[in-house]
Amino acid sequence: MKPSIWKWSTRTVVTIGIGAALYGATSWIGIPIAPDTQLRPAIALLAIFGALFGPVVGFIAGFIGHVINDFIQSGTVWWGWALGSGITAAFMGLIYLSKDFNPKDGVIKKKHLISFIIYGVVGIFVSLAFSGLFDIYAMGEPNNKIVIQVISAGLVNLAVFLILGVPAVWAYAKRNRNNANLTVER
């Protein structure tokens, strides 16, 4: 039985801390693709933490992790993009709410993968639309710069999610399914 997304324990807080630290520490690894925009493999961590621990843990870990990364890289937090990372992870974490989805016990079906992909794709574009609009209206950034950032970030985040994030969650569940049939012989 999966814990409720609202039931907090020491393990939940530690998971958020680990997720935020991993995302924040690995987000600096990237390939520049547009102004202030990189292809970041760390996006896969948002998928993993969201799917395995739910949308609330995913949101908080993604948000705090992005804040950590912003401080490490520039000393300035881009709040719209930090919230966007949290939104992305929260959408990816919606799969956790599926009644029979439980990768920790090796339960993942084709319908779960399809739902996970849909949640992830929608989450990526909702979060980037939010981040872009936030930058335009709250930060006064030029429209053409933000459009380039949002489109390029959307495409590369989608690629990382589909190439690294989805297979990582599937492999985790498959590994646990294989181990679930072990018995102790006496």
Q: Fill in the CATH topology.
A: Arp2/3 complex 21 kDa subunit ARPC3
What amount of the residues lies in strands?
A: under 5%
SSE topology string: HEEHHHHH
Mean pLDDT: 93
- Share of residues in helices: 55-70%
CATH architecture: Orthogonal Bundle
Q: Give the radius of gyration.
A: 17 Å
Topology:
Elements: H1 10-26, E1 31-34, E2 37-39, H2 43-53, H3 55-73, H4 79-92, H5 110-137, H6 143-180
Antiparallel strand pairs: 1-2
Q: What's this model, at a glance?
A:
The chain has helices spanning 10-26, 43-53, 55-73, 79-92, 110-137, 143-180; strands at residues 31-34, 37-39. It is mainly α. Keywords: Membrane, Transmembrane, Transmembrane helix.
What does this structure look like?
Keywords: Membrane, Transmembrane, Transmembrane helix. Pfam families: ECF-ribofla_trS. The chain crosses the membrane at residues 12-31, 43-65, 77-97, 117-140, 146-173. InterPro entries: ECF_substrate-spec-like. It comes from Paenibacillus anaericanus. With 186 residues, the protein is mainly alpha-helical. It has one domain (10-175): Orthogonal Bundle (Arp2/3 complex 21 kDa subunit ARPC3), CATH 1.10.1760. Helices cover 68% and strands 4% of the residues. The chain has 6 helices and 2 strands, in the order αββααααα. The protein has helices at residues 10-26, 43-53, 55-73, 79-92, 110-137, 143-180; strands spanning 31-34, 37-39. The protein has a two-stranded antiparallel sheet with strand order 1-2. Helix 1 (10-26) packs parallel to helix 3 (55-73), helix 2 (43-53) crosses helix 4 and helix 3 packs antiparallel against helix 4. The longest helix has 38 residues, at 143-180.
